[in-house]
Amino acid sequence: MNNLRELGHEVVAASPSLGVNSVTGKGLTEAVSGAQVVVDVSNAPSWEDQAVLEFFETSTRNLLEAEVAAGVKHHVALSVVGTDGLLESGYFRAKMAQEELIKASKVPYTIVRATQFFEFVEAIAQFSTEGQIVRMPSAPIQPIVSDDVAAAFVDFTLEAPVNDIVDLAGPERLGLDELVRRFLTAKKDTRQVVTDEEARYYGVVIDDKDHSLVPRGNARIAPTRFEDWLNRSMSQV
């Protein structure tokens, strides 16, 4: 948001804390009035299967209806690389429902599927920890730092809608096991990472081990390497 302001664009922030609620519809009409582009990076407060589905369906439907009424020219939404291959998860089923609503809308759109954020590696490790063992598959992943996602969204916001899905990823492809191992080593965390191809990712079986968590075909590649982010993060501790 600040990046766009620095480029001279008028930006209106919208969130429940600012009086705009996409689920109830409160404040939406006023928030999108006069807007040329709407960027949706909202996330559900609960990841329980039914709750997350209701959030994304209701929120997205309300937002798109408000945009049609206001004449918005471009809807930019954040989604997740691998969404269509991880539908065992209620969260990813909800993200898929969100994408389908966007595609069916009259508003021109760009859906940006980003890979996993560096900042969530610790949560991935914690989810898969049993005692002092962290079980992770070797499925490749191409993570990205959130700052690079924010920078890329400036470009997507200012470019013409593609009416399609665009993948966004970091510059380095690693196995999930290696990614978590590097993170724990850098933190001097004594947990042991065990490679287990039957282990789950956030509780989800990765059916297509080679492709589920990495972009397919052309993707926009961000610059920050995981090792560089790790070094910066550890120096700030």
UniProtKB/TrEMBL annotation:
<keyword id="KW-0521">NADP</keyword>
<dbReference type="InterPro" id="IPR016040">
    <property type="entry name" value="NAD(P)-bd_dom"/>
</dbReference>
<protein>
    <submittedName>
        <fullName>Uncharacterized protein YbjT (DUF2867 family)</fullName>
    </submittedName>
</protein>
<dbReference type="InterPro" id="IPR051164">
    <property type="entry name" value="NmrA-like_oxidored"/>
</dbReference>
<dbReference type="Pfam" id="PF13460">
    <property type="entry name" value="NAD_binding_10"/>
</dbReference>
<feature type="domain" description="NAD(P)-binding">
    <location>
        <begin position="27"/>
        <end position="119"/>
    </location>
</feature>
<dbReference type="InterPro" id="IPR036291">
    <property type="entry name" value="NAD(P)-bd_dom_sf"/>
</dbReference>
